[in-house]
Amino acid sequence: MPRWALLTSGCAPVLLAAGWTIAGLLEGPAYDPATRTISVLAAYGASGSWVMTGALVAVGVCHLLTAWGLRPAAFAGRVALAAGGVSALVVALFPAPSSGGSLRHGSVAAVGFTLLAVWPVLSAVRHPAAPWALRPAAAFGVTALMGVSATWFLIELHVHGSVGVAERVVTSVQSLWPFVVVASCVRHRDQGGLPT
């Protein structure tokens, strides 16, 4: 388990939050982060689109590098995490329009949400000496949390409610979990657990 994976996995949530914060400030008071999506910040013509697009690209690269370095995880989980990173890159390439929806953008975002929600379960290792974040109970628990928060996001999107809050919750959990897994693996190795 390379220590640089702590950097790549730890940067993802920081870059994502910094991206939506800075892009929101550039957008000004007309942008309401509680009721507007992150995609609005990366839309064509948005004042901070370059910031949010750059953040999405950086997060995608972070997920790809983390998946490469996360050798203790099951291979299927690493592939799903990497594919989630590719989805973030593709979302950056196909931003949402400034008004209305986009089937292409929405489809890629949905695939990315799904991949990042299932990667914990797919990365689980069924060994009693596995790092705690890779054990099935932890993996199923965090996948369930991501599923519940994604359902909340879809409900808020449908009723035009606090969609921005719900999206930030689900994306925060999805971007933070790789760091938790990497930290768990590094700590496990340093405490004399199975080689990672």
Query: Structural class of the helix and strand makeup?
Result: mainly alpha
| Helix content bin | over 70%
Task: Note the beta-strand portion.
Answer: under 5%
Largest sheet: none
Helices and strands, in N-to-C order?
HHHHHHH
Instruction: Give a count of the beta strands, DSSP E runs of length 2 or more.
Output: 0
User: How far apart lie the N and C ends?
Assistant: 5 Å
The mean pLDDT is 92
**Backbone CA Rg:** 17 Å
C-alpha geometry: elongated
The helix tally amounts to: 7
* Low-confidence region ranges: none
Give the structure's gist in a few sentences.
The protein is mainly α. The chain is 72% helix and 0% strand.
Overall description:
This protein is mainly α and 196 residues long. The longest helix is centred in the C-terminal third of the chain and has 28 residues. The model has no long low-confidence stretch (mean pLDDT 92).
Topology at a glance:
Layout: H1 4-27, H2 38-41, H3 49-69, H4 75-93, H5 103-123, H6 136-159, H7 163-190
Helix pairs in contact: 1-3, 1-7, 3-4, 4-5, 5-6, 5-7, 6-7
Keywords:
196 residues, mainly alpha, 7 helices
